[in-house]
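Hi U.,

Before I forget, here's the chain from the pilot set. I'm dumping it here mostly so it's searchable later in email.
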Amino acid sequence: MFNEHTVHGPPDKIFEDAAFIEKFRNMLVVETGQDLWLARGVPRAWLQQGKQISVTSAPTRFGEVSYKIVSDIDNNRIRANVRMPERKKPDTVLLRIRHPYGEHIKAVSVNVSALTSFSADNETIDLRGFYGEIGLEIEY
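Structure:
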């Protein structure tokens, strides 16, 4: 049996498994202080044409959060639906949408209304002040 632990530790890798799961979760949902980040570490390749990312009922200190991101890059847009947490309001909710080829965000609409609180350089959309379920369309 191969044992990578020099002091003959346990053959299972509970710590390594837990660390992997935590890092994977933090790619999708992460709390930093009183702020909530969504899709902060999602790789660009995950948002190529036709791909989807879906998170359902992820527990956070603010309550459960869900979102679905659907890429339609061939038509210069990405759509997202977000169900905001309801237990406690975060100071800020930031959604990071990374265009697969590095293009900058040109416009964002939330529930069909234009939204100006986004950073094209940081590829983030500030969702503070929104409640319940919201629909976004990001244009490139």
